[in-house]
Amino acid sequence: MMRGPDAFTFADDPRTPIQVVVQPGPRRTTPAGVDLPEAADASVRTWANGMRTRDDGPDGSSVLLIGKYRRPGEIAMRLLSALPPLLVIPRAAHGESAVVSLLAEETVRNEPGQDLVLERLLDLLLVTILRARFIRPDADAPAWYRANGDPVVGPVLRLMHGHPDHPWTVAALAGRTGVSRATLARRFTDLVGTPPMAYLTEWRIDLAADLLKESDATIDSIARQVGYGSAFAFSAAFKRARRISPQRHRDRM
C-alpha cells in the first residue's frame, strides 16, 4: 500500500527498464509518451506483465491488481496520515485473501453494477489492511484510534462519530458512559490528546469538508448534518478552523 502522491515504479528488479507508464485517466503510454492501444472493451481492468489481459485469462504469469483513490477525504486522512509511505502486509498476517480473490474475479466480469462492486471491494480491502496494520503492537496508530478500545472513551468516540449532529456536551457524554464530567474530560484528554469538545469540533469540520466536496447539499443542510444550528454558526467555525469559508473550500475542491 503506497500512500502517495509520489509516483512509483513497479518492477521485478531495479535494473529492469520501464515498459509502461500509467498516466492519470488512466492512460497508458510508453516511457517516451506514446499512447499504447487500448483493448476494444475499455471496461476490462486487468493487466498482466504490462499488457491488458483478455477475458480468457492473462497472457503472462504475473498479474497485478491495482486500485487507487485519487483524493482521499479528510476523514480517511486521519488514518492514512499515520501510515508510512510504503506499507507491506504479508498475506499470512491478515484475512484479505478472499477480498483479493473477489476483486480479481470482478475485474473481468463486465456486468451491470461492476463499478459499484469494485469500489466497495476496494473499500473493504483498505479497511482490512488498515486493521491488520493498526492492531500490531508496534504500529503507530493515531491516539483516537487506540482510544476506541477504552471502556469509557471508546463509547464516547462512537457517539461522536455516529451522531455528529447531536448537541453533545461533556455532561451528556459523561451521562451516557456512567462517569463524571471531570473523569471523562481527564480520561479523554489523556488518551486522545485533546479535550472532548475540541475533538468533536475537529471531527465535525473534517466531516463537513468531505460533505462540501462530495455532495451538492446546501451549506445550511451540511451545517445541520454536522451539529450546527445555522449556516452562519457553521461558517464561522469552519473559517476559524480552516482559515477559509465553506463556499471557498467547495469552490477549490
UniProtKB/TrEMBL annotation:
<dbReference type="InterPro" id="IPR018060">
    <property type="entry name" value="HTH_AraC"/>
</dbReference>
<dbReference type="InterPro" id="IPR018062">
    <property type="entry name" value="HTH_AraC-typ_CS"/>
</dbReference>
<keyword id="KW-0804">Transcription</keyword>
<feature type="domain" description="HTH araC/xylS-type">
    <location>
        <begin position="154"/>
        <end position="252"/>
    </location>
</feature>
<dbReference type="Pfam" id="PF12852">
    <property type="entry name" value="Cupin_6"/>
</dbReference>
<keyword id="KW-0238">DNA-binding</keyword>
<dbReference type="InterPro" id="IPR032783">
    <property type="entry name" value="AraC_lig"/>
</dbReference>
<dbReference type="GO" id="GO:0003700">
    <property type="term" value="F:DNA-binding transcription factor activity"/>
</dbReference>
<keyword id="KW-0805">Transcription regulation</keyword>
<protein>
    <submittedName>
        <fullName>AraC family transcriptional regulator</fullName>
    </submittedName>
</protein>
<dbReference type="Pfam" id="PF12833">
    <property type="entry name" value="HTH_18"/>
</dbReference>
<dbReference type="GO" id="GO:0043565">
    <property type="term" value="F:sequence-specific DNA binding"/>
</dbReference>
<dbReference type="InterPro" id="IPR050204">
    <property type="entry name" value="AraC_XylS_family_regulators"/>
</dbReference>
<dbReference type="InterPro" id="IPR009057">
    <property type="entry name" value="Homeodomain-like_sf"/>
</dbReference>
